Amino acid sequence: MNNQQQAPILEVDQLNVRYGSFQAVKDVSFSVHSGEIFGLLGPNGAGKTSTLSSIEGLLKPLSGNITVAGFNTQEKPLHAHANMGVQLQATSFQPELTIAEIIRLFAGIYGVDLNNETVKEKLVEINLLDAAGKKFGELSGGQQQRVSLVISTIHDPQLVLLDEPTSGLDPQSRRQLWERIEGIRGKGNAVLLTTHSMEEAEAVCDRIAIIDHGRIIAINTPQALIDLHRNDPEVLSVVRKGKVTLEDVFIGLTGRAVRS
Amino acid sequence: METRIPKTTAVMSALLRADFTTLWRNRRSVRLVLLVPLVILISWKGLVDKLGGVFVLSSCITIGLTSIGLMGYSSAIARDRDKGVFQRLRVGPVSSWTIMISRLSAQIAMIVLMTILIFIVGFYVDKISITPIGYVAGLLMAMVGGAVYLSLGQAIVGRVKNPETVNSTTRLVYFVFIMVGMFGELEMLGNEIGQVVAWSPYGVVRKIQAGSLAPGAWKLETTYALLLSLGYTLVFAVLGIKWFKWDSK
């Protein structure tokens, strides 16, 4: 059966988020299916993180429904959380704890029984066995992202939410992380990620949604978006080197103005 | 697919292990928090005959409780909130109250440790000896008194978002409580200030502490102080919970 025909792992329906008088997210709807990597793209302040925070339960939406693995995030937050793994944009852990202790803490929180051997296995999996006794703050950016990802997936969740996971990483670390993200998809789980990188969206995402001023303005596979918009005057006006790329489509649809 | 929610006991155990490890790794700041009441206890050795052993012990325990609630608890909460530690925990299948109960448990352990240390130093250095019931009641009442300052710390960390401002605010409140509280109770600041201090969070906690250390001397005034302590705790806790935001942004 095609994944798209199955019940979605994540369903966002008519989501609205407001901060005071500013409406950050307007009637956003989309769904993510198992075995799919779905990218949420948008300029700064477009509403990506607000959408993600609403799914994670960190933000109370003004209206709309979010279901994760069939559980409404407002009505059954613990059930929804148990089915999702989250990597926040700026992850931090208690600075006094070692990496092994952090892994054990989150294993306990997600109800996963880890003994010393299985903690070691997790560390070997991310090439950080030597760092078991180090503090999170002592790791490089790439190592921190690997730890965050292993914690996000420690309970093998059906949905993994990644907020700008490769931001600030060198090309090697970024490639390695992409492979890990693809590994999650390979297991049949779904991934929702936000990114500013069009290269990343094209490289790993099966479908993407472009969000701007709180609204989804396009949603499709990266190639289909290029094909659909390659002749748009706004897109043609920003094309460089003759070939239409996803970045051209993105800038064509969201405008050239720099966002704060 | 069936969704398995982790047992609260398993989650609590993981959180407690992490919070107590954090407390242990912060031994230096723990020592600093304990230092002030112990220094006062030792330096007041010559005043025990004049002020009475129960007054000295209850004053030192009250000062220790103020340190734990205002400096230890609120600073740790402000720092972790600012770093996003709570947000990372809250995206897991864990209720907010579980996170807070674990944090408070670590502080209760601190209160027990501080009170026992004061009893031991008081006994060996200041030669203060009270009845076994007094020790047990004093330990239990330290938790009631601790609740006043933990909830006050919660109210401050709820109202103030910036961790640096939380630090400076709690230090200021701590300084005022200690200086005005101690001098006021010793009637060095006049009768009116003395009366205000007597029914302030400092005064009522000191009173119930003294009442518990010498249960035979428990008076109606001590009962009023106990009721007022519970009242202060309730008001500060309600404000602290109402104002508190998990995110400092």
Automatic annotation (TrEMBL), chain A:
GO terms for molecular function: ATP binding; ATP hydrolysis activity. It comes from the Bacteria. SMART domains: AAA. Residues 10-238 form the ABC transporter domain. Keywords: ATP-binding, Nodulation, Nucleotide-binding, Transport. Belongs to the ABC transporter superfamily. This is ABC-2 type transport system ATP-binding protein.
Automatic annotation (TrEMBL), chain B:
Residues 13-183 form the ABC-2 type transporter transmembrane domain. Keywords: Membrane, Transmembrane, Transmembrane helix. GO terms for cellular component: membrane. Its main location: membrane. The keyword Membrane applies. It is a multi-pass membrane protein. GO terms for molecular function: ABC-type transporter activity. It is found in: Membrane. It comes from the Bacteria. InterPro entries: ABC-2_transporter, ABC2_TM. The chain crosses the membrane at residues 30-47, 53-73, 104-124, 130-152, 172-190, 224-244. The keyword Protein transport does not apply. This is ABC-2 type transport system permease protein.
